[in-house]
Amino acid sequence: MATLIKKAVVPKIQDIHKFEIGKVVKWSKRFHDGRSYETWNYSGEIIRINPKTVTVVDSVGNIWRVEYNEIIL
User: Fold this and answer.
1) Do the Cβ atoms of 54 and 23 come closer than 8 Å?
2) Distance between CA 71 and CA 73 in Å, rounded?
3) What is the distance between the alpha carbons of residues 27 and 44, in angstroms, rounded to a whole number?
4) Per residue in 5-31, pLDDT tens?
5) Which 8-state DSSP code applies to residue 33?
6) Which residues contact 11 (CB under 8 A, 6 or more apart)?
7) Buried b (16+ CB within 10 A) or exposed e, 18-32
8) Share of the chain above pLDDT 90, in %
9) What CA–CA distances, in Å, run from 49 to 26, 32, 33, 34, 38?
10) How far apart are CA 50 and CA 67, in angstroms?
């Protein structure tokens, strides 16, 4: 008998419709160096919308995959 190991996380449809290609978004990443936490803020333009993430290019040309829940509107 088969058992379900992990259930796929599907974003809500209304989350996907908040974003469109060309829109500028902001997000932050939190890093821990063993002693303290450091937060870096980023911004960039959406170039692709994926089912779980958006692909963003920043001003330097770096390409990021950012999850919907990390984006600050």
Assistant:
1) no
2) 6
3) 9
4) 555 555 555 567 788 999 999 999 888
5) -
6) 51, 52, 68
7) ebeeeeebebeeeee
8) 47
9) 15, 29, 32, 34, 28
10) 9
The structure's pTM equals 0.72
**What is the C-alpha to C-alpha distance for residues 29 and 37, in angstroms, rounded to an integer?**
10
Tell me which residue of 22, 24, 20, 9 sits closest to 69, measured CA to CA: 9
Among 8-12, 44-48, 64-68, the least confident range: 8-12
Q: Which amino acid is at 1?
A: M
